[in-house]
Amino acid sequence: MEQRVIGLLGGMSWESSAQYYRLTNELVRDRLGGLHSARCLLASVDFAEIERLQVAGDWDTAGAVLARVAKALEAGGAEIIVMCTNTMHKVADQIRADLGIPFLHLADTTARAVIAAGMTTVGLLGTAFTMEQDFYRERLASHGLSVLIPEAADRAEVHRVIYEELCLGVVREESRQIYREVIERLVAAGAEGVILGCTEIELLVGAEDSPVPVFPTTRLHVEAAVNWSLSEEQA
């Protein structure tokens, strides 16, 4: 069948973008069989540049950088944009504004999975930006979800592990245990499930590390993109 081309806006970090590329191709292979692979374009930015803008709070400039890359993907033949990061969905509206093709919002695909599982209250793990600012939590809340975040000390540890370890490809058992304990505290606070709201987190923990279901945002995002690519439905 004819695949529609998925544009992957990645590099934030490349560790997680590699998972996006792998999963996209694996899912297409599993759906179509044989030697099939995904029709996709990957544009990878320099994360050091984006991270400096995050720390400086210069989201407008970061959004402008990513908007240019998204437009380049569109010009190259992409028929949908999938941004391979949770945090930078803070500038999703800025990126989407100049596109003539759909932008698949990661928080929407995640929220739909949570709702399909029959849950209304979820814990959220991610970078400090994702956990503490409104852009992501409010997007989830717009779907009718209640979102819990860890206490301040736990948020700091979750953020540190992402930037100092996972973004560098470092996976430590000690950090896995830290995340397990944070998850347990979220569950004790009332979380029915936990959103792994940073693409790198899936390198560290999974369903086996939580007493409640987890929602791996990378896989959910890719599944939605591949489903769209292989169907005639509107994004």
TrEMBL record:
The keyword Transferase does not apply. Keywords: Isomerase. It holds the Pfam family Asp_Glu_race. InterPro entries: Asp/Glu/hydantoin_racemase, Asp/Glu_race, Asp/Glu_racemase_AS_1, Asp_race. The keyword Isomerase applies. It comes from the Bacteria. Transmembrane segments: none annotated. GO terms for molecular function: amino-acid racemase activity. PANTHER family: ASPARTATE-GLUTAMATE RACEMASE FAMILY, GLUTAMATE RACEMASE. Belongs to the aspartate/glutamate racemases family. This is Aspartate racemase. It comes from Nakamurella panacisegetis.
